[in-house]
Specification:
This protein is an alpha+beta fold and about 575 residues long. It has 24 helices and 19 strands. The protein has three domains: about 200 residues, Aminohydrolase, N-terminal nucleophile (Ntn) domain (Glutamine Phosphoribosylpyrophosphate, subunit 1, domain 1, 4-Layer Sandwich), CATH 3.60.20; about 220 residues, HUPs (Rossmann fold, 3-Layer(aba) Sandwich), CATH 3.40.50; about 70 residues, no CATH class. Helix 2 crosses helix 3 and helix 12 packs parallel to helix 17.
Length: about 575
Amino acid sequence: MCGIIGTIGKIPKKEEFEKARDVLSHRGPDDFGAYYNEKDGVALGHRRLSIIDLSLAGHQPFLSNDGRYAVVFNGEIYNYLELKKELENFYDFKTKTDTEVLLASYIKWGKDCLQKFNGMFAFAIWDEEKKELFCARDRLGVKPFYYSSINSEQVFCFSSEIKGLLALEIKPEPNDKIIYDYLAYGLYDHSNETFFNKILKLPAGHYLVYKNNKLDIFKYWDLADIKKAPSKISLIEAKEKFLELLSDSIKLRLRSDVKVGVNLSSGLDSATLLFFAEKITGRNLDIFSMCSVEEEYDECSLIKNFLDEKQKNKWHRSCLKPEEVMELIVQLIESQDEPYGGIPTIAYHQLAGLEKDKGVTVVLEGQGGDEILAGYKYYQPEFIENMMKEKQGFKYSQDMSTQINTYVLKDSFLKKEFHNFIYRRPFKSELLNAQYRDIVYSKLPRVLRFNDRMSMVFGREWRQPYLDYRIVEMCFFLPDELKINNGVQKFLLRETMKEIVPSDAGQRPKKTFGAIQTPWFRKYLKDYIIEILNSESFGQRPYWNQEKVLEEANKFFNGEGDNSFFIWQWVNLELWLRKYIDSAQQD
């Protein structure tokens, strides 16, 4: 896991480029390097977090044996050992790294190597002979890839984080279209655009080619393109296949030359990961959980019921305190680069810091189980619609507009002719369309972005076994009744694991940390929030009417409603504007 950066065309001086590279030093504290080709106008930079082959052989940028290709790579190719065996008669391997396997795969198969990889990755390969740059991002978009292409100056640059592009002197300007989507619809991380104008991200499951000052982007994987009807698999067959795939996915993700741990909540997803990880390794692993100072929201009171004594001895807990929140809000504005989720994201950030303190570099994470197995309660209407549409034409759709408050936005901003964003609905099944929305546009992209920045700011690597593309493809296309059955969600996972993991795991309602935001805003953060909303800078923004904002905020603080999302929107965006836009204008 690392940080990558590069520029093609009019490249900066080497010392300036290396300074921009080192803005990403938190992502790769162990090593650094640069490929600087002034003749062709190519600069590639790398900061390394050593995970596989800790020797200097893993130094990047990594060159092919003949010197034709140079690669910078962020992520892991989990099946690199299997691919290396397949390639051993084609390529003369000099190292034990997955980086060399990735490069050899590209040399042999070209763009088709992407179909071979099981992993999370973002990489760039320069072909010195063709004068061509090839870049790609993994199927689910676990690893980030941001870029900016300025045709007038014939410059293309990329980075693992937006701050790398800003260090390459891309001018920070607000993208009002995304700000509109955020304030009017509550959308963010839903497209290839960012909150910064002219800074884009390569979509998940895509690759790009940059040659002769021309950029072309191609898709290589999309659930909608698989065009597979829900399978007719039985519960017994599904359990057998799911167990096989999940066990193999976890086994692959345990490949590491540094310590591995598990993030554990009170839910079944992470308890399942812990069970298999300890079974496969034959030892107790370090366990990390978020706790709360308030019992009502404390998952640790549930977790301790299903851990044995040996596990408890390696159980580490973080505990976010109200007095820490104000300082951490600003810290995360800087580490996330863009507006982010509220207090739950801050608590998770603190958990990653604990993992660094305990010296655990790689951590298994349960993200993705709810999206691929329909675990969220709000999937129920789509599930019911699938059952009823042929019989009664039953129609019910989830309306999230109640979470947004457009009353406070300025008429001049609301009337701007921005294109209204519409989710693709590629399936006949309403449930599949809802899951597709969350995997491609909403929940998963934003959580993966949060998690990448939270972990990497501390030089940690979080791995998601449920997002193995084989598991995603299998679970996504399961019959509805194997996802939701008699009101039981994630039915296949529960049936598969009910006699394997402790009965307490996931059997009680989770005490979600997200629920703490509203009471904490009211009890501890009122003065801080009102000061921001009442500030001169907030009042001068072209987006909202300050008087109406304060009116709505006072209603909230007086106990009206439980929705704190719109409060966080205003505060989050204002702090982001101060950090990135106002400061740049003052320089």
